[in-house]
Batch of 2 targets.
Target 1
Amino acid sequence: MKLAFHLAYKNLMGAGLRTWLNAGVLSFAFVVIIFYNALIDGWNQQAKIDGINWQYGYGHLVNDNYDAYDAFSIKDGHGELPESKQKNLTPILIQQGNLYPNGRMMSILIKGIDPNQGILLLPTQLLNDSKAEIPVIIGKRMSESAKVKTGDEFLLRWRDKNGTYDAATVTVAGVFETNVPFVDSRQIWMSIDKLRKLTLLHNKTTYFVANEQYKYESAPGWRFEDQEYLMREQTRLINAKKVGGSIFYVLLMTLSLLAIFDTQVLSIFRRQKEIGTYIALGMTRWQVVRIFTAEGAMYSVFATVLGAIYGIPLMWYLSITGISFGADGGEMGVIISETLYPVYGMGLIFGTILLVILSATIVSFLPARKIARMNPVEALKGKIS
Amino acid sequence: MSEKIITTEKLFKRYPVGDGEFTALNDINLTFDKGEFSGIIGPSGSGKTTLLNILGSLDSPTEGRATVLGHPISSLSHKEAAQLRNKHIGFIFQVYNLLPVYTVFENVEFALLLQNRSASERKKEVMQALEWVGLENMANKKPSKLSGGEGQRVAIARAMVKRPDLVLADEPTANLDAKNAHAILQTMKKLNEELNTTFIFATHDEKVMGYLNRLIHLEDGKVAKDEIVTAKTV
Ligand SMILES: Nc1ncnc2c1ncn2[C@@H]1O[C@H](COP(=O)(O)OP(=O)(O)O)[C@@H](O)[C@H]1O
Ligand SMILES: [Mg+2]
């Protein structure tokens, strides 16, 4: 085997440009695979962290009547949890309302939260600090779509638990910036005590956000949704992106593997005399098959080296500066930051190297098998077509 | 008594051609002794190469037996045949068949690599073989930098480096001018005498015949004449 690689190395080096062309194309596929996946992994990690910090906490204890995907469940999707069971939980109450910023009307969600909470990054402390009658905080997307900023006042209308309309002026106490559109788009945050008072929903909660110390114990009328469950849509989307991207690099891989396959077929045809000579010198045909397979496999080794030469500095650089797509998850309903930082895992890198080496070896072996059926006499004459 | 290293009995080689068959070797019965310097001669198409390839275990007879160095050629496995060639048989071809990406040294070394010989041993043997053919100082050249005569000398060194019992040379002078042809023939004759290596040529070159001790005339796949001759001395 060592001999096969030694020969393969010599032959490839001897073949010059063609070798580097094949290895170059393969290395490109290789770098693209690693980079694309690293980017998605980076997005995934960032989205998880953002999601936990802004929205999920360590899980939600949700009222059974509430379904985040059903707007009609909001009105009655709340309940009362015994005080004794509220340890390590931050209550959130959601109700619908209409906003009248600058004479327009917008239907939004009003979310009530404990201003002293520390589990989410929402700057709820601003609600305490404000001297306004009803202070609210909003996200940047909301601020842009409603065209309101800190200090602005506008009219809010809502219905109390009996269905009676009421209205009041609310004041923007602060605008926060987040990658998580689910705590930003079309919603305002106020103190939960205020919201309960305005809606007459005393002690009612839509869901609780758990902190790290929270231990779930069953509570009738409530269900616990853990982080993984809460992230399921995001995970599904990221996986879909992975599959979508894989089409692109499967294509790239196919192209580069085709180039190797083609080179192999050609070189086996052109190097019949050499093959015959190897056999005359005392190699078995399978030993010659091994040489040619090793040659093809070695493209992947060269590709790895080549890919490392330009890929490592490039990928390192991008992992520091990140890549700005200017993407706003709000429109897509996903958590995505404007700048993505690729994350290169060992599994990803070694998995890709293995994949490239394996597939290059296979496409080299397939045409090389022909050598095993060659008649050495014909090969020496160069007569095999 | 001399030692027989090759016998062929009722050897036939037939090729399918169209609907019928073409008989390339027709009832060949020959023996070769150790140390012979003999030639299979005859016009192009008479079956010389076919016979040489069977003796070299690269090909097998359609019918009959060929026994080379005690091995029945037809019943060798691929692996056994490869072993036989690697250890005991050297080939020299009309077009040298040097491996272009290797240096002269590496070309000659190849057979020894297959034998898993140690690096120091390989070096010693390769340099010895290059000395035999007078190319000690070309060891690091690539074949493309060699003249035709030099190329064929490398091929001789490659065949001889493993000190085989048998060297099969198929038209070794066909691409050489007279001066180079005589030079390599003298080299081979000298090795034949010094190492007692058996040489069998396939040729229709008069220059070669002048060096041979035995001429086996092949005509249409049949042995027409098998004569012992007095050869030139080197
Ligand atoms: N694979 C083959 N199929 C059919 N005929 C062949 C084949 N190989 C050789 N021959 C024929 O066998 C005859 C002997 O060929 P060869 O041994 O090469 O002759 P020589 O070496 O004496 O010129 C030639 O007529 C050649 O055409
Ligand atoms: Mg011939």
Target 2
Amino acid sequence: MEMIRARELVYEYEQRDDEGNVIGMNRALDEIELDVRPGQFVAILGHNGSGKSTLAKHMNAILVPTGGTMWVNGRDTKDPRELMSVRQSAGMVFQNPDNQIIGTIVEEDVGFGPENLGVPTEEIWRRVEDGLKSVGMLEYRTHSPNKLSGGQKQRVAIAGVIAMEPECIVLDEPTAMLDPVGRKEVLRTVQELRKRKNVTVILITHYMEEAIDADAVYVMEGGHVVMQGTPREIFSRVDELKRYRLDVPQVTMLAEELRKGGLDIPKGILRREELVQAICRLS
Amino acid sequence: MIREITIGQYYPADSVIHRLDPRVKIVCTLLFLISLFVQNSLSGYVIATLFLVFVIRASKVPFRFIVKGLKAIILLLMFTVVMNLFLTKEGAVLLHFWIFTITENGLRISVFMAIRLIYLIIGSSLMTLTTTPNALTDGIESLLRPLNRFRVPVHEVAMIMSIALRFIPILLEETDKIMKAQIARGADLESGNMIQRTKAMVPILVPLFVSAFRRANDLALAMEARCYCGGEGRTKMKPLVYKRQDYAAYVIVVAYVVLAFVAGRFAPLHIWIF
Ligand SMILES: Nc1ncnc2c1ncn2[C@@H]1O[C@H](COP(=O)(O)OP(=O)(O)O)[C@@H](O)[C@H]1O
Ligand SMILES: [Mg+2]
């Protein structure tokens, strides 16, 4: 069974004028088809306004489709009786680290989700400890979130999701507001989680480098999925990506330019080591 | 300048008072405040003073921290004293010059009023100094829970309070940032009369409100995403449980109230006019 499955998923925002009258519909998602198997790491790329956040909000039943269907862990997100179990199955991490931390103390914030689920007190403490440990923030448990760095705040937010014991984590541009150090910190945390807990990860991002390790990459544009495949397949289609106003990882770019310059370098190089090897093989 | 505002100042220390259940501290503070206002004799105030000294000692909060809270009411204090001193006409005249008269009663009332106000502030700052804002909200929520029956949304109000506590520092910082940004654009916030200065605040308040609403929207989404749907069916990570020390504290405070009342009634202790 798929972890996340979408068939002919459509979502339309109502467009309103200044008085609040509906003047039209804005189709933010158009006939999306998506299949994510348990344990997979899926990256979703796309320019601003391409519908990535709208799609992410469907995975958590914050938005429900206006057409088609979305299943999370086999449950239809349109069904109000499944709402809580959908939200528990697919935890969500948002872009702005400040606006998603609810507690005034780190450990209380991590406990917020389990409290809502009605988990018994001792079990909450176990989960909070486990969540903070798995993001490496256990020593900050009694700190105020206001004093943490952006990367640390995002790790606390991830711990808050982990404490709900989800099967799947959806991260909507979790690194967009962080400095390079914070970005690395958050990505490393996500990778470790994947290894240790075998959770499904859906990472929405602007940074191509973050998609390199994904099992599958989806590229969105104007509410459609316009490309899908492994990172190697996707990033070898440099010109197409450019059309969707996306870059490729720097190394891929360099390899592409060298190839165009007449050197015999294979397509779809993602990592620095691969490029080094390819160049060494030349002579 | 704006960061100097501290709300719910908490003095971290490891003392018996800090460890008490927040409900105990709230109820006992209320009892103490009430006892002050039904008090009208010297012996009662002596007992109240001894009791306060005892609690301050036990709380391990330095005295100067407690006195800091008094600065905020110094104007109010002076106003009350002056009003009571000059406007009380009953009783024997102590002093008379030009249009001012000070009577025995006036002196007595203004001194007692000053003591009451000072002890009131000390008593309530002791509570906030020894209780984290979070514990305080939890305590209030738990104490007001019976109001649920009258459809007062107690849980929601407590949630609003604790979220406000989390966002006050963030919004203060943001105000600071916006002010600096507007000053860098040539905004003049310092000079001019009252009206001009109020007008100058508009370019600060507008972006602040816009950002506050955006934050509120984001936060609501984040709470929903984490399965929040009101107080129903929620469990607590840190439930409030009375321990033996909490019962002891209740006993001590009730004993104080009774003692102060009885002493005031049967041994009022008159010295001069007091
Ligand atoms: N709350 C909303 N109301 C109306 N339109 C919206 C709303 N949120 C997003 N949109 C529109 O939906 C489209 C997709 O937006 P979004 O999913 O946020 O894109 P992304 O996350 O990829 O930047 C955009 O055209 C945007 O203007
Ligand atoms: Mg977005």
